[in-house]
Amino acid sequence: MGRVHLGTCSWAERTMIEAWYPPQVSTPADRLRYYAAHFDTVEADAPFYAIPDRRVVENWAKRTPEGFTFHVKAFGMMTQHAVDERALHPELREYPHEVERGRVKRPSQEMVDLAFDLFCESIDPLVDAGKLGGVLMQFPPFFTALDDALFEDNLAYIEYARSRLGKRHMLVEFRHPSWVAEDRVHETLRFLADRDITYVSVDAPQFPTHTTMPPLVAATSRTGYIRLHGRNRETYFARNVSAADRFDYLYTAEELEEWAPRVRELAAQTDDTYVMFNNCKYDYAPRNAREMAEILGPELVAPIELADGGQLGLGL
Questions:
Q1: Are β-strands 103-105 and 83-84 bridged in parallel, bridged antiparallel, or unpaired?
Q2: CATH topology of domain 3-296
Q3: What value does the mean pLDDT of the chain take?
């Protein structure tokens, strides 16, 4: 059975900074060091909005200890999202592109190719430091498998993306349940497993219309990955809200207990399983991560430090 690593999907969300970090931890560098003293893994979500400067990523690697793991969310253009034109890398601006309401849509294939190249170059300091876990490819709700043509076309895009990422491990999160419908799920998971791509399991609000992903756990590589988005049904599909507001939810102990057997199931089939809390409003994500560590116990989870510097009591 592999180890389980717990972390959050941001370390720098504004309300998390205000609620979780002590007042004296006041700079970006200090916050990352503080975070890494308490957890051994994190998601970098800022690259979804703009390809980061390589020097910034070099500092991420320098400010974290050996054995720390970053998972990096892919730039939105790489997962077919419309992106803010103002956030484009200077080299991408040189390519012709359509803009609607300030968002770049329908970029050329050459522009997407370059986006992959620039992104990969920017995160390679993590590869060099042995600190890159995976690249999170979170596809939008309109990336579906609703019919055979869409299914084949979108599988082909995943294959393309995997080839562009090269040696960097790919984590795929679907946001439309058609991918795991009864008539699709076997083929979807087989496709990912045959290519050593990690299927990202999710917890999200469930609706009578079945418009969100169900809590399916599946091992398609030696890396397991779970993202917990919270269950706030009022904000999940809201427009013009921040990511923190969208995932404004504190899990109860009972809700975390629901996930414990699924985590153990995934850990039994993988070398490492990452359980990442995306409910980054206030201190909800680190608080729930610590609670999940208590539930899973020291046989699966390494010690997690408390914000006051003490340990959680899971000592090795």
A1: antiparallel
A2: TIM Barrel (3.20.20)
A3: 93
